[in-house]
Write a structure and sequence with these properties.
It is a single chain. By secondary structure, the protein is α/β, with parallel strands linked by helices. It is about 30% helix and about 20% strand. The protein contains 16 helices and 21 strands. The strands form 5 sheets. Strands 1, 2, 3, 4, 5, 6, 7, 18 and 19 form a 9-stranded mixed sheet that branches. A 5-stranded parallel sheet has the order 8-17-9-10-13, covered by helices on one side. A hairpin with a 4-residue loop joins strand 1 and strand 2. The longest helix has 21 residues. The radius of gyration is 24 Å and the shape is globular.
Length: about 550
Protein backbone atom coordinates (compact mmCIF):
# COMPACT_ATOMS: atom_id res chain seq x y z
CA UNK A 1 0.00 0.00 0.00
CA UNK A 2 1.15 3.51 -0.76
CA UNK A 3 2.65 5.63 2.00
CA UNK A 4 -0.07 7.98 3.22
CA UNK A 5 2.39 10.77 3.99
CA UNK A 6 2.37 13.54 1.42
CA UNK A 7 5.79 14.21 -0.09
CA UNK A 8 7.16 17.50 -1.26
CA UNK A 9 9.48 17.35 -4.25
CA UNK A 10 11.91 20.21 -4.71
CA UNK A 11 12.28 21.68 -8.18
CA UNK A 12 14.52 24.49 -9.36
CA UNK A 13 11.94 27.21 -8.75
CA UNK A 14 9.15 26.01 -6.53
CA UNK A 15 7.86 23.11 -4.53
CA UNK A 16 5.58 20.54 -6.11
CA UNK A 17 3.31 18.49 -3.88
CA UNK A 18 2.95 14.86 -4.89
CA UNK A 19 -0.26 12.99 -4.10
CA UNK A 20 -2.01 9.86 -5.19
CA UNK A 21 -5.39 11.62 -5.43
CA UNK A 22 -6.49 15.26 -5.61
CA UNK A 23 -10.14 15.96 -4.82
CA UNK A 24 -11.68 19.24 -5.95
CA UNK A 25 -14.47 20.42 -3.65
CA UNK A 26 -15.35 19.88 0.02
CA UNK A 27 -19.09 19.40 -0.19
CA UNK A 28 -20.75 16.11 0.71
CA UNK A 29 -19.07 14.39 -2.25
CA UNK A 30 -15.57 15.63 -1.52
CA UNK A 31 -15.80 14.92 2.19
CA UNK A 32 -16.91 11.31 1.74
CA UNK A 33 -14.36 10.77 -1.02
CA UNK A 34 -11.63 11.94 1.33
CA UNK A 35 -12.86 9.78 4.20
CA UNK A 36 -13.13 6.71 2.01
CA UNK A 37 -9.66 7.06 0.46
CA UNK A 38 -8.01 7.79 3.80
CA UNK A 39 -9.53 4.61 5.21
CA UNK A 40 -7.93 2.77 2.30
CA UNK A 41 -4.53 4.32 3.00
CA UNK A 42 -4.34 6.45 -0.14
CA UNK A 43 -2.57 9.83 0.04
CA UNK A 44 -5.27 12.38 -0.66
CA UNK A 45 -5.93 16.09 -0.33
CA UNK A 46 -9.04 18.20 -0.94
CA UNK A 47 -8.91 21.69 -2.40
CA UNK A 48 -11.89 23.91 -1.62
CA UNK A 49 -12.64 27.44 -2.85
CA UNK A 50 -14.65 28.39 0.24
CA UNK A 51 -13.45 28.76 3.81
CA UNK A 52 -15.51 25.85 5.09
CA UNK A 53 -17.09 22.51 4.19
CA UNK A 54 -20.63 22.00 2.95
CA UNK A 55 -20.56 22.80 -0.75
CA UNK A 56 -23.94 24.11 -1.90
CA UNK A 57 -25.02 24.50 1.73
CA UNK A 58 -21.95 26.61 2.45
CA UNK A 59 -22.73 29.07 -0.37
CA UNK A 60 -26.55 29.13 -0.49
CA UNK A 61 -27.29 30.97 2.75
CA UNK A 62 -30.17 33.08 1.43
CA UNK A 63 -33.17 33.46 3.75
CA UNK A 64 -35.55 30.54 3.38
CA UNK A 65 -32.96 28.14 1.91
CA UNK A 66 -34.15 24.63 2.70
CA UNK A 67 -33.73 21.09 1.37
CA UNK A 68 -36.65 19.53 -0.54
CA UNK A 69 -35.70 15.97 0.50
CA UNK A 70 -36.79 14.87 3.96
CA UNK A 71 -34.01 15.22 6.52
CA UNK A 72 -33.97 11.60 7.62
CA UNK A 73 -33.07 10.59 4.06
CA UNK A 74 -30.87 13.55 3.12
CA UNK A 75 -27.87 12.27 5.04
CA UNK A 76 -24.94 9.88 4.81
CA UNK A 77 -25.56 6.18 5.33
CA UNK A 78 -21.96 4.91 5.29
CA UNK A 79 -21.76 5.13 9.11
CA UNK A 80 -24.59 3.76 11.22
CA UNK A 81 -23.07 5.48 14.27
CA UNK A 82 -23.38 8.81 12.46
CA UNK A 83 -26.98 8.05 11.47
CA UNK A 84 -27.91 7.19 15.03
CA UNK A 85 -26.21 10.08 16.79
CA UNK A 86 -27.29 12.99 14.60
CA UNK A 87 -30.65 14.61 15.41
CA UNK A 88 -32.58 16.45 12.71
CA UNK A 89 -35.04 18.98 14.20
CA UNK A 90 -37.31 19.44 11.15
CA UNK A 91 -38.87 17.34 8.41
CA UNK A 92 -37.21 19.53 5.76
CA UNK A 93 -33.95 20.96 7.02
CA UNK A 94 -33.01 24.61 6.62
CA UNK A 95 -29.58 25.49 5.26
CA UNK A 96 -28.12 26.24 8.70
CA UNK A 97 -28.97 22.76 10.02
CA UNK A 98 -27.49 21.03 6.98
CA UNK A 99 -24.32 23.10 7.27
CA UNK A 100 -24.13 22.16 10.97
CA UNK A 101 -24.37 18.52 9.91
CA UNK A 102 -21.59 18.94 7.33
CA UNK A 103 -19.36 20.52 9.97
CA UNK A 104 -20.19 17.74 12.42
CA UNK A 105 -19.14 15.15 9.84
CA UNK A 106 -15.89 17.03 9.17
CA UNK A 107 -15.13 17.12 12.90
CA UNK A 108 -16.21 13.58 13.66
CA UNK A 109 -13.95 12.09 10.99
CA UNK A 110 -11.16 14.66 11.38
CA UNK A 111 -11.40 15.66 7.73
CA UNK A 112 -10.15 19.25 7.91
CA UNK A 113 -6.51 18.30 8.30
CA UNK A 114 -6.55 17.10 4.69
CA UNK A 115 -8.65 19.94 3.26
CA UNK A 116 -7.03 23.12 1.95
CA UNK A 117 -9.62 25.91 2.14
CA UNK A 118 -9.68 29.27 0.34
CA UNK A 119 -7.95 27.63 -2.62
CA UNK A 120 -9.26 27.44 -6.16
CA UNK A 121 -8.00 24.88 -8.67
CA UNK A 122 -7.39 26.77 -11.91
CA UNK A 123 -5.98 24.03 -14.12
CA UNK A 124 -5.53 20.27 -14.36
CA UNK A 125 -3.41 19.06 -17.27
CA UNK A 126 -2.65 15.41 -18.01
CA UNK A 127 0.96 14.52 -18.84
CA UNK A 128 0.97 11.53 -21.18
CA UNK A 129 4.62 10.70 -20.48
CA UNK A 130 4.40 10.62 -16.69
CA UNK A 131 0.71 9.58 -16.64
CA UNK A 132 0.08 12.15 -13.95
CA UNK A 133 -2.13 15.17 -13.57
CA UNK A 134 -0.34 18.52 -13.25
CA UNK A 135 -2.64 20.63 -11.13
CA UNK A 136 -2.27 24.31 -10.28
CA UNK A 137 -4.03 26.47 -7.70
CA UNK A 138 -4.89 30.15 -7.84
CA UNK A 139 -1.98 30.98 -5.53
CA UNK A 140 0.54 29.22 -7.77
CA UNK A 141 0.88 25.94 -5.87
CA UNK A 142 1.57 22.96 -8.12
CA UNK A 143 0.50 19.39 -7.43
CA UNK A 144 1.29 16.15 -9.20
CA UNK A 145 -1.41 13.50 -8.78
CA UNK A 146 -2.10 10.11 -10.28
CA UNK A 147 -5.85 10.68 -10.02
CA UNK A 148 -8.03 13.76 -10.11
CA UNK A 149 -11.55 13.49 -8.66
CA UNK A 150 -13.95 16.32 -9.41
CA UNK A 151 -16.39 16.79 -6.53
CA UNK A 152 -17.40 20.20 -7.81
CA UNK A 153 -21.16 19.75 -7.48
CA UNK A 154 -24.04 19.98 -9.94
CA UNK A 155 -25.37 23.34 -8.75
CA UNK A 156 -22.28 25.28 -7.70
CA UNK A 157 -21.39 27.63 -10.57
CA UNK A 158 -23.66 30.65 -10.22
CA UNK A 159 -25.28 32.18 -13.28
CA UNK A 160 -25.40 35.96 -13.52
CA UNK A 161 -26.82 37.09 -16.88
CA UNK A 162 -24.99 39.96 -18.54
CA UNK A 163 -27.47 42.72 -17.75
CA UNK A 164 -26.64 46.00 -19.36
CA UNK A 165 -25.59 48.64 -16.83
CA UNK A 166 -25.07 46.27 -13.93
CA UNK A 167 -21.83 47.99 -12.91
CA UNK A 168 -23.49 51.41 -12.50
CA UNK A 169 -26.06 50.41 -9.86
CA UNK A 170 -25.41 52.31 -6.62
CA UNK A 171 -27.38 50.01 -4.35
CA UNK A 172 -26.54 46.58 -2.98
CA UNK A 173 -26.52 43.49 -5.22
CA UNK A 174 -26.75 39.86 -4.12
CA UNK A 175 -26.87 36.43 -5.75
CA UNK A 176 -28.79 33.73 -3.90
CA UNK A 177 -26.02 31.23 -4.70
CA UNK A 178 -23.32 33.44 -3.15
CA UNK A 179 -25.15 34.90 -0.19
CA UNK A 180 -23.11 36.84 2.40
CA UNK A 181 -22.21 35.11 5.65
CA UNK A 182 -23.34 38.14 7.63
CA UNK A 183 -27.03 38.98 8.13
CA UNK A 184 -28.67 40.96 5.34
CA UNK A 185 -31.50 43.22 6.48
CA UNK A 186 -33.92 44.65 3.90
CA UNK A 187 -36.00 46.51 6.49
CA UNK A 188 -37.50 49.66 4.99
CA UNK A 189 -35.89 49.09 1.58
CA UNK A 190 -37.17 48.80 -1.97
CA UNK A 191 -35.91 45.43 -3.19
CA UNK A 192 -36.02 43.79 -6.61
CA UNK A 193 -35.78 40.02 -7.09
CA UNK A 194 -34.89 38.82 -10.57
CA UNK A 195 -35.97 35.21 -11.16
CA UNK A 196 -38.67 32.85 -9.94
CA UNK A 197 -36.86 29.52 -9.66
CA UNK A 198 -36.37 27.45 -6.54
CA UNK A 199 -34.18 29.88 -4.60
CA UNK A 200 -36.51 32.78 -5.41
CA UNK A 201 -39.59 30.80 -4.41
CA UNK A 202 -37.98 29.99 -1.07
CA UNK A 203 -36.63 33.47 -0.37
CA UNK A 204 -39.35 35.80 -1.70
CA UNK A 205 -41.71 35.27 1.29
CA UNK A 206 -38.79 36.08 3.62
CA UNK A 207 -37.82 39.22 1.71
CA UNK A 208 -41.46 40.35 1.63
CA UNK A 209 -41.63 40.24 5.41
CA UNK A 210 -38.73 42.70 5.63
CA UNK A 211 -38.80 45.01 2.62
CA UNK A 212 -40.85 48.18 2.42
CA UNK A 213 -41.57 47.26 -1.20
CA UNK A 214 -40.67 44.05 -3.04
CA UNK A 215 -40.69 43.83 -6.82
CA UNK A 216 -40.52 40.33 -8.30
CA UNK A 217 -39.36 40.31 -11.93
CA UNK A 218 -40.65 37.11 -13.52
CA UNK A 219 -39.85 35.76 -16.96
CA UNK A 220 -41.32 32.27 -16.54
CA UNK A 221 -43.64 31.11 -13.73
CA UNK A 222 -42.84 27.90 -11.89
CA UNK A 223 -44.85 25.09 -10.37
CA UNK A 224 -44.38 24.79 -6.63
CA UNK A 225 -45.84 22.54 -3.95
CA UNK A 226 -46.26 23.53 -0.28
CA UNK A 227 -43.57 21.90 1.87
CA UNK A 228 -45.86 21.33 4.88
CA UNK A 229 -42.71 21.46 6.95
CA UNK A 230 -42.92 20.61 10.65
CA UNK A 231 -40.76 19.64 13.57
CA UNK A 232 -40.01 15.93 13.57
CA UNK A 233 -41.90 13.73 16.01
CA UNK A 234 -39.31 12.09 18.33
CA UNK A 235 -41.29 8.84 18.30
CA UNK A 236 -41.32 8.77 14.50
CA UNK A 237 -37.56 9.35 14.51
CA UNK A 238 -37.07 6.43 16.90
CA UNK A 239 -39.01 4.14 14.58
CA UNK A 240 -36.90 5.20 11.59
CA UNK A 241 -33.63 4.81 13.45
CA UNK A 242 -34.64 1.37 14.69
CA UNK A 243 -34.72 0.21 11.07
CA UNK A 244 -32.56 2.74 9.24
CA UNK A 245 -31.05 -0.05 7.15
CA UNK A 246 -34.52 -1.02 5.95
CA UNK A 247 -35.27 2.55 4.91
CA UNK A 248 -32.01 2.80 3.01
CA UNK A 249 -32.54 -0.55 1.30
CA UNK A 250 -36.04 0.46 0.15
CA UNK A 251 -34.74 3.79 -1.13
CA UNK A 252 -32.18 2.04 -3.32
CA UNK A 253 -34.99 0.24 -5.13
CA UNK A 254 -36.73 3.49 -6.07
CA UNK A 255 -35.92 5.46 -9.25
CA UNK A 256 -35.21 8.59 -7.22
CA UNK A 257 -33.09 6.88 -4.57
CA UNK A 258 -35.67 8.32 -2.17
CA UNK A 259 -38.06 6.10 -0.23
CA UNK A 260 -41.39 7.24 -1.63
CA UNK A 261 -44.33 5.05 -2.62
CA UNK A 262 -44.21 4.12 -6.31
CA UNK A 263 -47.55 4.89 -7.96
CA UNK A 264 -49.36 1.99 -9.56
CA UNK A 265 -52.31 3.82 -11.10
CA UNK A 266 -52.40 5.93 -14.25
CA UNK A 267 -54.10 9.33 -14.05
CA UNK A 268 -55.99 8.78 -17.30
CA UNK A 269 -57.29 5.41 -16.14
CA UNK A 270 -58.61 6.84 -12.87
CA UNK A 271 -61.97 8.53 -12.46
CA UNK A 272 -61.87 12.32 -12.21
CA UNK A 273 -63.22 12.11 -8.65
CA UNK A 274 -60.55 9.63 -7.49
CA UNK A 275 -57.86 11.52 -9.36
CA UNK A 276 -58.79 14.77 -7.63
CA UNK A 277 -58.82 13.03 -4.27
CA UNK A 278 -55.30 11.68 -4.88
CA UNK A 279 -53.98 15.09 -5.93
CA UNK A 280 -55.56 16.67 -2.84
CA UNK A 281 -53.99 14.05 -0.60
CA UNK A 282 -50.53 14.62 -2.08
CA UNK A 283 -51.05 18.39 -1.90
CA UNK A 284 -51.89 18.24 1.79
CA UNK A 285 -48.90 16.01 2.53
CA UNK A 286 -46.68 18.44 0.63
CA UNK A 287 -43.30 18.13 -1.05
CA UNK A 288 -41.98 16.66 -4.29
CA UNK A 289 -43.94 13.43 -3.68
CA UNK A 290 -46.78 15.19 -5.50
CA UNK A 291 -45.35 13.86 -8.77
CA UNK A 292 -45.75 10.33 -7.42
CA UNK A 293 -49.53 10.70 -7.54
CA UNK A 294 -49.77 8.69 -10.75
CA UNK A 295 -47.34 6.68 -12.85
CA UNK A 296 -48.06 8.41 -16.17
CA UNK A 297 -47.57 12.08 -15.20
CA UNK A 298 -44.11 12.31 -16.75
CA UNK A 299 -44.85 10.15 -19.77
CA UNK A 300 -48.25 11.24 -21.09
CA UNK A 301 -49.01 14.89 -21.85
CA UNK A 302 -52.75 14.46 -21.26
CA UNK A 303 -52.07 12.90 -17.86
CA UNK A 304 -49.62 15.68 -17.05
CA UNK A 305 -52.24 18.27 -17.95
CA UNK A 306 -54.51 16.98 -15.17
CA UNK A 307 -51.79 17.65 -12.57
CA UNK A 308 -50.86 21.01 -14.11
CA UNK A 309 -54.46 22.22 -14.09
CA UNK A 310 -54.83 21.10 -10.47
CA UNK A 311 -51.92 23.37 -9.51
CA UNK A 312 -53.24 26.27 -11.57
CA UNK A 313 -56.58 25.96 -9.79
CA UNK A 314 -54.76 26.12 -6.45
CA UNK A 315 -53.04 29.32 -7.57
CA UNK A 316 -56.36 30.89 -8.57
CA UNK A 317 -57.83 29.91 -5.21
CA UNK A 318 -54.91 31.40 -3.30
CA UNK A 319 -53.99 34.60 -5.14
CA UNK A 320 -56.73 37.22 -4.82
CA UNK A 321 -55.93 39.27 -7.93
CA UNK A 322 -56.98 37.22 -11.01
CA UNK A 323 -54.43 38.97 -13.24
CA UNK A 324 -51.57 38.16 -10.86
CA UNK A 325 -52.84 34.60 -10.46
CA UNK A 326 -52.80 34.21 -14.24
CA UNK A 327 -49.23 35.52 -14.47
CA UNK A 328 -48.14 33.09 -11.75
CA UNK A 329 -49.72 30.12 -13.51
CA UNK A 330 -47.28 28.05 -15.62
CA UNK A 331 -48.56 26.72 -18.93
CA UNK A 332 -45.83 24.13 -19.56
CA UNK A 333 -45.34 20.54 -18.43
CA UNK A 334 -45.23 20.09 -14.67
CA UNK A 335 -42.01 18.29 -13.79
CA UNK A 336 -40.07 19.23 -16.93
CA UNK A 337 -38.48 21.93 -14.81
CA UNK A 338 -37.40 21.31 -11.25
CA UNK A 339 -40.54 21.03 -9.13
CA UNK A 340 -40.17 23.60 -6.37
CA UNK A 341 -41.23 23.31 -2.73
CA UNK A 342 -42.32 26.42 -0.86
CA UNK A 343 -43.69 27.92 2.32
CA UNK A 344 -46.27 30.63 1.64
CA UNK A 345 -45.04 31.59 -1.83
CA UNK A 346 -48.31 32.36 -3.60
CA UNK A 347 -49.82 33.91 -0.47
CA UNK A 348 -46.98 36.44 -0.60
CA UNK A 349 -48.50 38.02 -3.70
CA UNK A 350 -51.56 39.03 -1.69
CA UNK A 351 -49.41 41.42 0.33
CA UNK A 352 -49.74 45.13 -0.44
CA UNK A 353 -45.94 45.58 -0.47
CA UNK A 354 -45.32 42.94 -3.16
CA UNK A 355 -45.57 43.57 -6.91
CA UNK A 356 -45.15 40.99 -9.68
CA UNK A 357 -43.58 42.40 -12.84
CA UNK A 358 -43.88 40.28 -16.00
CA UNK A 359 -40.71 40.54 -18.09
CA UNK A 360 -41.50 37.67 -20.48
CA UNK A 361 -42.45 39.99 -23.34
CA UNK A 362 -40.53 43.04 -22.15
CA UNK A 363 -37.13 41.89 -20.87
CA UNK A 364 -35.12 44.00 -18.47
CA UNK A 365 -33.59 46.69 -20.68
CA UNK A 366 -30.88 47.98 -18.39
CA UNK A 367 -29.77 48.35 -14.81
CA UNK A 368 -29.52 52.01 -13.83
CA UNK A 369 -27.83 53.87 -11.00
CA UNK A 370 -31.05 53.74 -9.00
CA UNK A 371 -32.81 50.59 -10.17
CA UNK A 372 -33.73 48.97 -13.46
CA UNK A 373 -35.81 49.64 -16.54
CA UNK A 374 -38.29 47.29 -18.19
CA UNK A 375 -41.09 48.11 -20.64
CA UNK A 376 -40.02 51.74 -20.55
CA UNK A 377 -40.50 52.14 -16.78
CA UNK A 378 -37.76 52.59 -14.21
CA UNK A 379 -38.21 50.78 -10.90
CA UNK A 380 -36.31 52.53 -8.11
CA UNK A 381 -34.50 49.99 -5.95
CA UNK A 382 -32.19 50.01 -2.93
CA UNK A 383 -31.08 46.41 -3.53
CA UNK A 384 -31.27 43.80 -6.27
CA UNK A 385 -31.28 40.06 -5.62
CA UNK A 386 -30.29 37.90 -8.58
CA UNK A 387 -32.07 34.56 -8.14
CA UNK A 388 -30.83 33.52 -11.55
CA UNK A 389 -29.65 30.03 -10.74
CA UNK A 390 -26.62 28.09 -11.89
CA UNK A 391 -24.66 26.91 -14.87
CA UNK A 392 -25.77 23.43 -13.85
CA UNK A 393 -23.92 20.13 -14.17
CA UNK A 394 -21.00 21.41 -16.27
CA UNK A 395 -20.30 24.98 -15.18
CA UNK A 396 -17.98 24.28 -12.25
CA UNK A 397 -15.99 21.73 -14.28
CA UNK A 398 -15.56 23.98 -17.31
CA UNK A 399 -14.45 26.90 -15.13
CA UNK A 400 -11.26 24.87 -14.60
CA UNK A 401 -8.77 24.54 -17.45
CA UNK A 402 -8.90 20.73 -17.76
CA UNK A 403 -6.82 19.18 -20.54
CA UNK A 404 -6.50 15.51 -21.40
CA UNK A 405 -4.62 13.61 -24.09
CA UNK A 406 -2.91 15.70 -26.80
CA UNK A 407 -3.86 18.83 -24.86
CA UNK A 408 -7.57 18.36 -25.57
CA UNK A 409 -9.57 20.85 -23.52
CA UNK A 410 -12.64 19.52 -21.77
CA UNK A 411 -14.37 22.78 -22.71
CA UNK A 412 -13.78 22.02 -26.39
CA UNK A 413 -14.79 18.37 -26.12
CA UNK A 414 -18.05 19.39 -24.43
CA UNK A 415 -18.80 22.38 -26.65
CA UNK A 416 -21.75 20.50 -28.14
CA UNK A 417 -22.88 19.19 -24.77
CA UNK A 418 -21.25 16.98 -22.13
CA UNK A 419 -20.19 13.48 -23.14
CA UNK A 420 -19.31 10.94 -20.46
CA UNK A 421 -19.31 7.25 -19.72
CA UNK A 422 -21.69 6.72 -16.78
CA UNK A 423 -21.19 10.32 -15.68
CA UNK A 424 -17.99 9.04 -14.07
CA UNK A 425 -15.37 9.37 -16.79
CA UNK A 426 -14.81 10.86 -20.23
CA UNK A 427 -12.72 9.50 -23.09
CA UNK A 428 -9.28 11.08 -23.60
CA UNK A 429 -9.11 12.14 -19.94
CA UNK A 430 -7.39 9.25 -18.11
CA UNK A 431 -7.64 8.93 -14.32
CA UNK A 432 -10.13 11.80 -14.16
CA UNK A 433 -13.36 11.03 -12.31
CA UNK A 434 -16.48 13.15 -11.85
CA UNK A 435 -18.81 12.57 -8.92
CA UNK A 436 -22.48 12.84 -10.04
CA UNK A 437 -21.35 14.19 -13.39
CA UNK A 438 -23.56 14.70 -16.46
CA UNK A 439 -24.83 11.36 -17.69
CA UNK A 440 -25.52 10.06 -14.18
CA UNK A 441 -28.83 10.23 -12.22
CA UNK A 442 -27.50 13.04 -9.98
CA UNK A 443 -30.03 15.91 -9.77
CA UNK A 444 -33.00 13.66 -10.59
CA UNK A 445 -32.33 11.66 -7.42
CA UNK A 446 -31.71 12.10 -3.72
CA UNK A 447 -28.16 13.44 -4.05
CA UNK A 448 -26.67 11.80 -0.95
CA UNK A 449 -27.19 8.16 -2.06
CA UNK A 450 -26.03 9.07 -5.56
CA UNK A 451 -22.90 10.69 -4.15
CA UNK A 452 -22.14 7.69 -1.95
CA UNK A 453 -22.59 5.24 -4.83
CA UNK A 454 -20.19 7.23 -7.01
CA UNK A 455 -17.61 7.68 -4.26
CA UNK A 456 -17.61 3.96 -3.51
CA UNK A 457 -17.34 3.04 -7.20
CA UNK A 458 -14.42 5.43 -7.74
CA UNK A 459 -12.54 4.45 -4.59
CA UNK A 460 -12.96 0.75 -5.39
CA UNK A 461 -11.65 1.42 -8.90
CA UNK A 462 -8.59 3.28 -7.58
CA UNK A 463 -7.83 0.47 -5.13
CA UNK A 464 -8.20 -2.11 -7.90
CA UNK A 465 -5.64 -0.19 -9.91
CA UNK A 466 -3.17 0.29 -7.07
CA UNK A 467 -3.42 -3.35 -6.05
CA UNK A 468 -2.85 -4.59 -9.60
CA UNK A 469 -0.19 -2.10 -10.65
CA UNK A 470 -2.44 -0.39 -13.20
CA UNK A 471 -1.32 3.16 -13.99
CA UNK A 472 -4.20 4.47 -16.13
CA UNK A 473 -7.88 3.91 -16.68
CA UNK A 474 -9.86 5.65 -19.37
CA UNK A 475 -13.29 5.32 -20.95
CA UNK A 476 -13.23 4.11 -24.53
CA UNK A 477 -14.79 6.30 -27.18
CA UNK A 478 -17.21 3.53 -28.18
CA UNK A 479 -18.42 3.04 -24.60
CA UNK A 480 -18.87 6.77 -24.18
CA UNK A 481 -20.78 7.10 -27.46
CA UNK A 482 -23.05 4.19 -26.56
CA UNK A 483 -23.78 5.63 -23.11
CA UNK A 484 -24.52 9.11 -24.46
CA UNK A 485 -26.89 7.57 -27.01
CA UNK A 486 -28.61 5.60 -24.24
CA UNK A 487 -28.93 8.69 -22.02
CA UNK A 488 -30.54 10.60 -24.89
CA UNK A 489 -32.88 7.75 -25.82
CA UNK A 490 -34.14 7.41 -22.25
CA UNK A 491 -34.57 11.18 -21.91
CA UNK A 492 -36.72 11.25 -25.05
CA UNK A 493 -39.18 8.84 -23.43
CA UNK A 494 -40.01 11.39 -20.72
CA UNK A 495 -41.74 14.76 -20.72
CA UNK A 496 -38.87 16.10 -18.58
CA UNK A 497 -36.86 16.91 -21.71
CA UNK A 498 -39.63 18.88 -23.43
CA UNK A 499 -39.13 22.39 -22.05
CA UNK A 500 -36.40 24.98 -21.60
CA UNK A 501 -34.87 24.18 -18.22
CA UNK A 502 -31.45 24.06 -16.60
CA UNK A 503 -31.61 20.29 -17.12
CA UNK A 504 -30.89 21.08 -20.78
CA UNK A 505 -28.76 24.17 -20.13
CA UNK A 506 -31.43 26.53 -21.48
CA UNK A 507 -30.77 29.14 -18.79
CA UNK A 508 -27.23 29.77 -20.05
CA UNK A 509 -26.76 31.84 -23.19
CA UNK A 510 -24.87 29.88 -25.84
CA UNK A 511 -24.91 26.59 -23.95
CA UNK A 512 -25.70 23.51 -26.03
CA UNK A 513 -29.20 22.13 -25.43
CA UNK A 514 -28.65 18.61 -24.14
CA UNK A 515 -30.61 16.81 -21.42
CA UNK A 516 -27.73 16.27 -19.01
CA UNK A 517 -28.81 13.93 -16.18
CA UNK A 518 -29.60 10.24 -16.65
CA UNK A 519 -33.33 9.71 -16.34
CA UNK A 520 -33.33 5.90 -16.24
CA UNK A 521 -33.46 5.77 -12.46
CA UNK A 522 -31.09 4.97 -9.61
CA UNK A 523 -31.49 1.13 -9.50
CA UNK A 524 -31.02 0.70 -13.25
CA UNK A 525 -27.96 2.92 -13.18
CA UNK A 526 -26.38 1.10 -10.22
CA UNK A 527 -26.96 -2.21 -11.97
CA UNK A 528 -25.09 -0.89 -15.03
CA UNK A 529 -22.16 0.32 -12.89
CA UNK A 530 -21.93 -3.04 -11.12
CA UNK A 531 -22.03 -4.90 -14.43
CA UNK A 532 -19.16 -2.79 -15.75
CA UNK A 533 -17.00 -3.79 -12.78
CA UNK A 534 -18.05 -7.46 -12.92
CA UNK A 535 -16.96 -7.56 -16.58
CA UNK A 536 -13.47 -6.34 -15.66
CA UNK A 537 -14.27 -2.64 -16.12
CA UNK A 538 -16.08 -3.10 -19.40
CA UNK A 539 -15.95 0.04 -21.53
CA UNK A 540 -12.66 1.17 -19.99
CA UNK A 541 -9.13 0.61 -21.20
CA UNK A 542 -6.39 0.15 -18.59
CA UNK A 543 -2.62 0.03 -18.79
Amino acid sequence: MRDTQQSINETADKQVRTLEVVIVGAGFAGMYMLHRLRELGVSTRVYETGSGVGGTWYWNRYPGARCDVESMQYSYQFSDELQQEWEWPEKYSPQADILDYANHVADRFDLRRDIQFNTRIVSAIFNEKTKKWNIKTDDGEQILANFCVMATGCLSSTNLPKFKGLHVFKGKTYHTGQWPHETVDFDGMKVGVIGTGSSAIQSIPMFASQADQLYVFQRTPNYTIPARNAFLDPEEVKVIKADYSGLRARAKTKPSGYDLPIPTRAALETSSEDRLQEFESKWENGGVAFMASFKDLLFDKDANDTAAEFIRKKIRETVKDPKIANLLSPNNVIGCKRLCVDTGYWETFNRSNVSLIDVSNHPIETITENGLITDGREYLLDAIVFATGFDAMTGALLNIDIRGRSGLKLKDKWSGGPKTYLGLSTADFPNLFTITGPGSPSVLTNMLPSIEQHVEWISDCIMHMLTNGIKCIEATQDAEDDWVEHVNEVADLSLRSTCSSWYVGANIEGKARVFMPYIGGFPRYVEKCEKVVANNYEGFVTN
